[in-house]
Amino acid sequence: MLAEAAGCPLYVVHVMSDNAARLISDARRKGIPVIGEAVASALATDGRKYSHECWHHAAGHVMSPPLRPDPNVSLELMKCLGHGDLEVTGSDHCVFKTEQKAIGKDDFRKIPNGVNGVEDRMSVIWEKGVVSGILDPCKFVAVTSSNAAKIFNLYPRKGRIDVGSDADLVIWDAEATHTISAATHHQNVDFNVFEGLRCHGVPCTVLSGGRVVMEDGELRVTQGAGRFLPCAPFAAYVYDRIRPFTESHAVKPVMREPYTGPVSKTFHCEDDSGTIDGLKNGAANGGVDPAGDGPRARSPTRCGGRNMQESSFSLSGVQIDDKCQVRSCIRTKQPPGGASTALW
């Protein structure tokens, strides 16, 4: 994998299948720094919707990568979040209205790719993860908030309630229920991939920077109130994992005493005819002295055989058979393919 070859962290977005999650899990167990992200749509619905009789319904689920048709994939991905093999959940929010999706009504390839997720992500993960018993509330906070803040080096400014941290808070009612519907959501789209899903766990109040932006289901946002967050490189949460991996894969030098014995100025090789002085043999047969840059292959044996394991490559272009006379042409009566007869 790229992360193993480069020794660098790899962040894999849009993990949509259990096979992909399994590969990430196997890599992490080998110490390879790989981070996997699941998306809300893959945790609550599946690709069977692509076979729906209603074109509008089927097109509303078109996204990249696509949803998998196996209904068990959602459960497996949630288990990976619970085990820590996947660490983050995203929304992959990119919505298109029906008339925009209809651009591809006659050609599937032209359907704009994207589904909703940003508004319902936390409720969906609470319902599918915490209510089902796969996640505990602390793990829920980790996969929806604090892990992302640590990975992108925004922690403890984000992802933590503490003095000096940004006052970004969600007051959560774990007992309240809510049925997701396109008729009541706040997104500028007429379709919702979670349509009809009844969720336990609803945000009562949301604060951003200490200001109430949502309360009792009503938005109170001001356009343009957001601000850019610079992310410093080399987050400790990520790179502290690389140090043991790098150290374990580093080439370790062999400590030994230096050689102080005699060093020969000539070399010897042995072939069918017995021991031959390599220096004399090379000079006499078109070769080059070992100190040179020419071919360093032994000469052919008396029967014409050569050692095919030795290279005759030379940067100077010298070849072993340079001194052999080359004939301009060879006249052959019967070439290897058989005799040939002219038609005239």
Report on the structure:
Belongs to the metallo-dependent hydrolases superfamily. Hydantoinase/dihydropyrimidinase family. This is dihydropyrimidinase. GO terms for molecular function: dihydropyrimidinase activity. It is an enzyme of class 3 (hydrolase). Residues 280-308 are annotated as: Disordered. This protein is of the alpha/beta class. Among the domains are: 2-163, Metal-dependent hydrolases (TIM Barrel, Alpha-Beta Barrel); 267-294, no CATH class. It is 26% helix and 14% strand. The protein has 10 helices and 9 strands. The protein has helices at 2-6, 18-29, 40-44, 55-59, 73-83, 98-101, 121-130, 137-151, 236-249, 278-284; strands at residues 10-12, 34-39, 88-90, 169-179, 198-208, 211-215, 218-219, 268-271, 274-277. The strands form 3 sheets. The chain has a 4-stranded antiparallel beta sheet, covered by helices on one side. A 3-stranded parallel beta sheet has the order 1-2-3. It has a two-stranded antiparallel sheet with strand order 8-9. β5 and β6 (211-215) form a beta hairpin. α2 (18-29) runs parallel beside α5 (73-83). It is elongated, with a radius of gyration of 35 Å.
